[in-house]
Amino acid sequence: VTIDQLETPALLIDVDIMERNLQRMAAYAAANGLRLRPHTKTHKIPALGRRQIDLGAVGLTVAKVGEAEVMLSSGTPDLLVAYPTIGLGKLTRLMEVARRTRVTVALDSFEAARQLDEMAGEAEIEVGVLTEIDVGLNRVGVTPGPELVDLVRRIVHLKNVDWEGIAYYPGHIKKMDADGEAKMVALSDTVARAINDLGDAGYTARIVSGGSTPTWMRSHEVAGLTEIRPGTYIFNDRNTVNSCACDWEDCAGTILCTVVSTARPGQMIIDGGSKTFSSDRLTGSTEVTFGRLTTDPAARFHAMNEEHGFVDISQSEHRYQVGQRVRLIPNHICVAMNLHERVHAVRGSEVVATWTVEGRGKLQ
Ligand SMILES: Cc1ncc(COP(=O)(O)O)c(C=O)c1O
């Protein structure tokens, strides 16, 4: 089967680019003595998790229990749930996962740790815990200082959880420009302070888990970091290019669309809108566009309805006809993946495999 024979809209993954992205990150982690625990929220496909393990990842990361259940079939020796898992229902399911592979949860409250400890005790399973610290995203995580030390002190007294260390996510660093550089320095200081405060209180963090795709190349500069959890790097997207963490040639994910209307001068409508691309805007930019045409950057994909993409072609040198096909690099590939039941692995114009996005919609 060739790309021309696929129904559109279709999400395509260039397997050679993906493989290069995977190998590059694996080589970086190995060269810098960092454990790699990739976040699978980007691809949501167990076979790709398996590939990450085969290339040296120590385990995989998920956000939700539903994703953890799906990722079990990758055969991962270890799963980090990098999200506070709260409530009996979810924890009961998580214990079933923990019977089949080592599970660690990143959390930021004693209540979350207490619930996990109770359920782990009932299930007679030991579960790992990382204490989440806030390094500037202001999302989850306690502020390093007495609050962190106090939380760790209470967690280490719990019998069925093993306190392994700390976790953070530098999602506030969106681009490695001057502002990003300054934030990296501040981040490194914050992490060092957290490790020292804990050390002074007698607690040694065996694992310090952080990292992201925009900051991946600079992870080794964070003192004390032992592990990185990049997710987007497997495919990359427009935001990754904007963050300076990759080039256009490193974007493995594209969305194939058909031109369905050219009725209005200077405009074409493609058969993908917000239900195909996601409504994610470009981060750290005032530009309102939703994807980049691989062969025509002058065309502006500036508006969407659910199933219609509005492309301004008034500045383009190309002429488009109804039925013609175009490929676009989406702004945010992770959310786009979650919108597609199946995606196609391609090499050149050949479709080499079709993958089911098994973790799609697993929000619980
Ligand atoms: C907790 C956590 N860890 C790791 C990641 C991976 O980040 P990235 O996709 O930038 O590599 C994310 C992404 O949202 C995250 O929320």
The percentage of residues in β strands lies in 15-25%
The molecules bound to the chains, other than polymers, are: pyridoxal-5'-phosphate
Q: What is the approximate shape?
A: globular
Order of helices and strands: EHEHEHEHEHEHEHEEHEEHEEEEHEE
Task: Give the rounded overall mean pLDDT.
Answer: 98
Distance between the termini: 36 Å
Based on secondary structure, the structural category is: alpha/beta
**Unreliable stretches, pLDDT < 50, 5 or more residues?**
none
Total helices: the number is 10
Helix content: 25-40%
Give a structural overview.
With 364 residues, this protein is of the alpha/beta class. The protein has helices at residues 15-31, 46-54, 65-71, 88-98, 110-123, 146-156, 178-200, 238-242, 274-277, 333-337; strands at residues 10-14, 35-36, 60-62, 78-81, 102-107, 127-132, 161-167, 207-210, 227-228, 253-261, 267-270, 291-293, 300-304, 309-312, 325-330, 342-347, 350-356. The strands form two sheets. Strands 1, 10, 11, 12, 13, 14, 15, 16 and 17 form a nine-stranded mixed β-sheet that branches. Strands 2-9-8-7-6-5-4-3 form an eight-stranded parallel β-sheet. It is globular and about 70 Å long. It starts with 9 loop residues before the first strand and ends in an 8-residue tail after the last strand. Pyridoxal-5'-phosphate binds next to loops.
